[in-house]
Amino acid sequence: MSPEAAILAAILLPAAGTLGILLAGRFSANLREAVTLTTSVLLAANVLSLLPDVLAGARPAVHIATLVPGIDIAFEVEPLGMLFAIIASGLWIVNSLYSIGYMRGNNEKHQTRFYAFFALAIVAAIGVAFAANLFTLYLFYEALTLSTYPLVTHKGDENSVRSARVYLGLLLLTSIGLFLPAVIWTYGVAGTGDFTDGGILAGHIAGPAVGLLLGLYAFGIGKAAIMPVHRWLPAAMVAPTPVSALLHAVAVVKAGVFSILKVIFYVFGVDFLAATPSADWLLYAAAFTILAASLVALRQQNLKRLLAYSTCSQLSYVVLAAALFKPLAEVGAVLHIAAHAFAKITLFFAAGAIYTASKKTEVHQLRGIGRRMPWTMAAFTIGALSMIGVPPTGGFISKWYLLAGAYEADNYVAMATVVLSTALNAGYFLPIIVLAWFAREEAAPGSVGAAAASGVKKDHGEAPFPAVLALTITAALTIAFFFFHQPALQLASEISMGLP
Amino acid sequence: MSVEAYHLAVLQVVVPLLSAPFVVLLRPRGLAWAAASAASAMAFAIAVSLTAGVLSGDEYRYAVGGWAAPYGIEIRVDALTSLLLLVVTGASLVALLAGRRSLDVDIDDARQPLFYGAWMLALAGLAGIVVSADAFNIFVFMEVSSLASYILIAAGPNRRALPATFKYLVMGTIGATFYLIGVGLIYMMTGTLNLADMAQRVHEVADQRPVLAAAGFIIVGLALKAAVFPLHAWLPNAYTYAPHAVTVFLAACATKVQIYVLLRFDFLVFQGNLPGHEFQFSHFLMPLALLAILLASGVAMMERNLKRLLAYSSVAQIGYIMLGVSLLSATGLSAGIIHIFNHALAKGALFLAVACLGMHIQGLRLGDLAGAAKRMPWTMAAFVIAGLSLIGIPGTAGFVSKWLLISAALAEGSLGIAVVAVVLIGSLMAVVYVWRVVEAAYFQSPQAGSPEGRHEAPPMLLVVTWAAVLGNVYFGLAPGLPIKLSQAAAASLLQHLP
């Protein structure tokens, strides 16, 4: 298949999968899940088929339509988008496996709707990854918001409707209120929105306006969850865990930081921003988010909310690294997208597996759970170590490059932030690990009745097999990324070499 | 141009006008509807072929009765005209095709021929306003369309349709009278009624004060008929209590036709001749447009009746049109003009979905919609997509006009930033009022005693609704045609500026 056909297929496959899921859902659940799995495997294979060309330096592109002269819907695969697409499509396979175990294990309703909108969200994520210009990016960015809304509100009770309102409201508020004017402003001054190596804005805009435009992008791309526009992320945790895992740890939030990286690399240009003092504030906003979100995470009792704040802080690592405007740091930013994806999806899988097996959602309930669910908690431990940045996990690699970049830039704020937040990460993850492995299970008298009333199961083993398999795979990927990150590094350095 | 093509411009009015008395005579059930639909389809086909002609570079000028302008009545079709003709005839055709079953419920059999006859007159009147190049003739058609639409609105099943119609009648008459006073003043000073001729002669007039007074009367009169804030008081109840199909028709085109006359008159006759008038026009209308967007959207956010919610949204959307126009630049004008087309698509589709809902849900307050998504999944899905177009989500027609409007405003410097802020706040307010409907329909559990199971709207109604919804998506992804027409229209309106 030619690369151009592969790009189109990457968009159309999950779209066809959506229809297939809707049709198959009328006949049998097994058939429907088969459609999901087949589609995800085909998609990943198809996306991977583009990798050799991109590594060889090619930039396959497809032009779909011209709305107005100068404003096109078009796709182009460049290294950063390639990486994001591989992560999203690859983890979709694992996540589909996990979904099967989770959704069936919890007897969730409306499963056909769930899988259909999930596939639709993947269409949008791939569209974001391969967008060749700002307009196309914005189109699929909004599609991603809208297609995940039914997933967040899946339960349909009052709590999830209220949280979903925050989710949709904040994401649309930022994208329509800030992102859209930034896009139109860019088209207005540069005359184009095509992603170009070295940026398109240099020479068209100068002084404080650069900082302002960067601000419109940084906060307008609310999916990157820079404080104070992060509130949608904890709100999204009412969704079923597979949604939190793939979408709110990988596809949606990564679409956010990915878009910010795209804007920094290909719209502003790293050198242009490095030479513009008014763009410096982004580093401090990211540093603040890293520390503040970690502090909030420290105080969370609900496991998924804790993970959400951790995500919020980890996303700002990417932004922080990018905002150093140094080649090594940019490599760190790109690598951290991948490293965090593997680790965080593992943590969410584990949280969901714990819920499926035991209905436990709070941190203090996890005493001694490691003995009942050794596989799950082992995976959780690996994920948590990667969050802290301990070798041999993927998180170490990206932190290494990030620190190297900070050192290169002589930026003590960035270095101090990384060191401090590593301590904070350890501060909220290690107690969970200790609690799970070394504490004794609660068996106080009277708590049995209370536990039964709250639906907590006392006697349980591991979650259903597909879920455990999925989290084992992602935990293995987290470790594998430490040893085999060459392709990702190569992709990342392609981008940095593309800088003039 | 062939002889037949030459006559197309006048046939645009003649076909519906002559079909009106014919429709009234058709007594057997359903026949009047069929004839009215056929006439509408023919009118739409004429509009399409006129548009095709305009796109290939023709300009249609027709002297009625062979009397040449400026003495005879002239009919003209250019880019702006053809865009409006598409909207007017398209809205009528869609509303008639979709509305048969819905109208059967609202209007008893005996009165149906009269009702459809009035519909044809309204169509003829609106099309006549658009094609006329003669100020007095515009007034005549304005009266024809207004009187006919009073009948259409008064046919609403709720008794409150009558006071709503009466309010519309009083306000509409005041508006038309103001317009007539303005035209009279100009006629007194120049001795001509043909717009193009007027534009030539106004500057020969020694004393310009009566012309300025005429401009005031005409702008205010037309603003009243176009429901420009704060002269919109007649609109919400008129839309709310009219039969659903009538709301589809009128919401899509009636106010826009008045805006069209306002544009024609002001840009063609006044701005070229009255020094500095373009700033009077802009400084008068822009604050009103901004207020319309903010206040009417605010009211829509609070409103509990679905149709009145959408009606207030229309007042806000008229604000967007006037805002683009009052920027006085080529991009601003084309943004305003294309929003005439795009808003007709979005609001038409929304009111069609309302018509679907109205088949099975009484009252149409937000509380009545609880659980509607389960009973009518296709209808509510259509409502959501059309609602996204109203908000201006990319991939829909509404986004194209927002994009052009913001681009035009950003070119205006610091004032533009305030304008952009209002446009964006208005869009976010639209998110709120559309989403209130969505949440009511999707997440509230139905009231006790309401029927279970699926009850979709009649197939014809649903098919037409979805056609309109897909139109929103199509013109969101391939907006070439309306953009071309609106840019040509903006260019021709602005060429009269010094």
Summarize the structure.
The complex is a heterodimer of chains A (500) and B (498). In chain A, 73% of the residues lie in helices and 3% in strands.
Provide structural commentary.
The complex is a heterodimer of chains A (500) and B (498). Chain A is mainly α. In chain A, a hairpin with a 2-residue loop joins β1 (61-68) and β2. Chain A folds into 2 domains: 1-279, no CATH class; 284-500, no CATH class. Chain A has a two-stranded antiparallel ribbon. Chain A contains 21 helices and 2 strands. Chain B has 498 residues and is mainly α. Chain B has a domain at 283-498. In chain B, 76% of the residues lie in helices and 2% in strands. Chain B has helices at residues 3-24, 31-55, 79-106, 112-131, 135-154, 161-190, 195-201, 209-225, 235-241, 244-270, 277-302, 306-326, 330-360, 372-375, 377-391, 397-410, 414-443, 459-477, 480-494; strands at 60-63, 74-77. Chain B has a two-stranded antiparallel ribbon. The longest helix of chain B has 31 residues, at 330-360. The two termini of chain B are 32 Å apart. Chains A and B meet through β1, α6 and α7 of A and α16 and α17 of B.
